[in-house]
Amino acid sequence: MVIQGRRITTDEIALIRGLMAEHREWGRTRLSEELCHCWNWRNAQGRMKDMAARTLLLKLERRGLIELPARQRPSTNHCRNRDLPPAVPPGAPIHGSLGDLRPLSASLAGPGSDDLRLFKSLLASFHYLGHRNTVGENIRYMIRDRHERPVACLLFGSAAWKCADRDGFLGWDRTCRERKLQYVTNNTRFLVLPWVEVPHLASHVLGLVSRRIRRDWQEKYGHPVDALETFVDTSRFKGTCYRAANWMHIGQTRGRTRNDREHRIREPVKDVYLYPLVPDFRKRLCA
């Protein structure tokens, strides 16, 4: 089986069980760190992928393959965003033409920054999916107009593990997908603030971000991304801004989730869009 992009065999499971049996005093954090050292599991910048290892361990436990040590302290993940103040709309809505707002700027909402706190508050308050903590490689953008007023925010994170129409479009088999998935990123959140009503703003923002995200990803993670993807809920949206920004509509999901092994979970059908960042994207993603 493949978990967190890593192939797990009986040998790997035996290693994890052996570490837990030999070091019963270890907590979950120490176990994930030592597992990374044993596997030399690192990202493109050479950093240990301990967060990926923690998620892998939890998934193995859910499948009944291992039994992790009890938590040494309560998990704080569910509390991280409880102290976020609700975002307050400005006194006046923003109307007019796109020219009235240009030039727009895109800034990275990095860890510990005021922009990150604002970013989380805006998504939690105004995006229909809300805000959740993101595991894995990701980039957050705050978009402001010429007057420094926030007008939009975007989140890019890990690509979907499987998508039949995307994989077919790229020419991916399972082995190729496992090897190249990190070179695709998923636009999981796109919010134009509800008090901003400016024609063509959304497609312009997508173009602005697509021209810089490859460089930003390289600087942050030590490798580029070669394509962007997104999934548009057809029960809510038509995907007009993605089409206007020259994203390619390449298919639809099947209305299932990754955990739907018995074909019982029904989810809204979503249109699948892809935006290549380089002309030879297929060659790069299949090499």
Q: Describe it for me?
A:
- This protein is α+β, with helices and mostly antiparallel strands and 287 residues long.
- Helices cover 34% and strands 18% of the residues.
- The chain has helices at 10-22, 28-39, 50-62, 98-101, 114-126, 164-170, 174-180, 201-210, 213-221, 240-244, 281-286; strands spanning 2-3, 6-7, 105-108, 139-144, 150-158, 184-192, 227-233, 248-252, 270-276.
- The protein starts with a strand and ends with a helix.
- The relative contact order is 0.11.
List the helices and strands and how they pair.
Elements: E1 2-3, E2 6-7, H1 10-22, H2 28-39, H3 50-62, H4 98-101, E3 105-108, H5 114-126, E4 139-144, E5 150-158, H6 164-170, H7 174-180, E6 184-192, H8 201-210, H9 213-221, E7 227-233, H10 240-244, E8 248-252, E9 270-276, H11 281-286
Parallel strand pairs: 6-7
Antiparallel strand pairs: 1-2, 3-4, 4-5, 5-6, 7-9, 8-9
Q: Do you know the CATH topology of the largest domain?
A: Aminopeptidase
- Basic shape: globular
Q: How do the strands of the widest beta sheet line up side by side?
A: 3-4-5-6-7-9-8
Question: What is the makeup of the main sheet?
Answer: 7 strands, mixed
Label the structural class.
alpha+beta
Query: How many structural domains can be distinguished in the coordinates?
Result: 2
Q: Give the class-level CATH name of the largest domain.
A: Alpha Beta
Helix residue percentage: 25-40%
Number of strands: 9
Poorly predicted regions are none
- Please name the CATH architecture of the largest domain: 3-Layer(aba) Sandwich
Share in β-strands: 15-25%
What's the Cα radius of gyration?
21 Å
